[in-house]
Amino acid sequence: MSGLGEMGNLLKQAQEMQRQLDAVRAELRARAVEGLAAGGAVRVVLSADRHEVRGVHLAAGAPVDPRALEEALGAALRDALRRAADAEREAIGRVTGGMNLPGLL
Fold it and tell me: Which of 1, 41, 81, 89 could make an SS bond with 61 (beta carbons 3.0 to 4.6 A apart)?
């Protein structure tokens, strides 16, 4: 019977982890991350879960030259994507205890 008891315990642990991952998904869905470039004059806002663009903001001081503006937008987008990945890693790490388990979200 101890084998069945261990199996039941593992199932409970898996169900708890699934519940925690669902909470992480909801947290990331509600969260936005921001990427900055050109000294903060170019800002890109992404959803933390699906990396969808929620906004692009150009402030005074944003590059006027098209090529420079394209580079700043790309830099801001890369920064936002890095921050989204960091947010995902941090959120998943709370559930997995820091273990890298690809494909959880």
Answer: 41
